[in-house]
Amino acid sequence: MMVGKHPFVYTYYPFAAGKCHSSQPEFLMSFYDIEKNPNFTTRTALFPSKVKNMNRCKLTVTAWNFPPYIFLNDFEKTRKLTTLRGIEGFVITLLADRMNFSIAIKQPSPIGRGAVYPNGTATLAAKMIIDREVNISVSAYTYNAARADVMLASTSYHSSSFVLAIPDGRPMTPIERLSKPFRYIIWSCFSSSVLFAILVIYFVRLLGRCEIMDFIYGHGNRRPFTNLIAVLFGVGLVNKLPYRNFSRYLLTVWMLYTFVLRSAYSGELFKILQDRTSRNIMNTLEDVVYNNYTIYAFATLEQVIKESMPEANVQMVNTTEEELLMRISKGSENDKIVLCSLDLTIQYYNQLFPQNRVRILRQPVMAAPLIFYMPRHSYMRLRTTNLILNLVESGLIKRYRRMILYSTTKVNSELAEPVELSFHLLRGIFWIYGGCLVFSGFVLIMEILSKRFYFFAVIIDFLNM
Q1: For the segment 275-334, what is each residue's pLDDT rounded down to a tens digit?
Q2: Cα separations (Å) of 337 from 20, 121, 280, 312?
Q3: Under 8 Å CB-to-CB from 340, ≥6 apart: which residues?
Q4: Which segments of 275-380 does DSSP mark as H helices, in order?
Q5: pLDDT tens digit string along 333-385?
Q6: CA distance 203 to 184
Q7: 393-402 own/partner pairs: CB under 8 Å, 24+ apart
Q8: What pTM does this model have?
């Protein structure tokens, strides 16, 4: 302000020693008689930091129990805050330590993030921020343009994904368990090699030259197809071993190849028959919509899902997330529901309830930065931005995450109690065994007919059965 011809400069110290949240202007410096001193300089900073040391002033944080981001179990019981736990709790605590302020918790009633409407009104925690009842709002807020217009958004401290929690899936059928040990690429390579071997055997047979047959099959070997199948299943050779080097090389390579695959298949099959592996029928959002599942989501996500997939059946979350995840874990056919939530929330639930786990859909719904909200024109914006960036660069956020989410995303089958083998689990093997019996009966009939009819004898000799 001007006093006569000379400017007097005042500023605010909202968090000074002995007074907090003060809006009283205080004298900073003046330019009195500056015209008499042409070399006038000032050592006083024109823009001093107001939040570098907040002198233990109390800042009100709106938060509630929202694992793994905020843990307030003790506070909700005793109404006394000792320390903030959780990923966001660690961040807020570190900010309070570096900026030297104390924390007070104020919860909205009822608990919820609230919505911001186009007319400027808001509800729950959002209304508390806009009305300046609190200084910081936490509990896993994602950036939203409507909120950012009326509140001040901090720098993102973590980027998370919204995913769908789906039922664990139906139990695998016995035949599916038999094919599960190998992936499609292994089955395709294995089938191609067997088919190629069969084609070579019968192509050489069609050539009808004994020299080529002895060179590839081995001298006197007239049952190469039978030997191929016998080595594949670990049975002894029908004929004597070949003498030529090339035929021995082919036999050795085939024996090594089948030995490795057979051993790997047997070991993995034994584990699959004893675990609780289920088969998931949904891998994309389109599969969820096609199977007519109800998607439970919060208000912001509900609008996003409806705009991207109008045919989806989306409803607002009407209970706690833990109760919904419990219902999903039961996997009832009459209760076809899924929950759209943050990936860390679902992972923490699976860690907390390993016996009632849910499956996470591979395709994420959307990715969003997690932030804090503050009132408009907050003093804390620049200082918290620098500190949060330092936290992210130092890797402390990832460290906080690993401290809380220490379990893997998959069930450890080695620690799970094995399932007792039953006829249902082994039924696929008996089916295959029955099919082999039928095939052997067909071969027996062909052998009997070959004794009486020359045509069948030619077929049997060519197929080398």
Answers
A1: 766 666 788 889 899 888 999 998 878 888 888 888 999 998 888 889 999 999 887 767
A2: 49, 32, 15, 12
A3: 162, 163, 164, 165, 295, 296, 297, 298, 301, 305, 365
A4: 285-290, 299-308, 321-330, 343-352
A5: 678 899 999 999 999 999 998 888 898 998 899 888 999 999 988 888 889 99
A6: 28
A7: 396/90, 396/94, 397/87, 397/91, 397/157, 397/158, 400/87, 400/90, 400/91, 401/68, 401/87, 401/158, 401/344
A8: 0.69
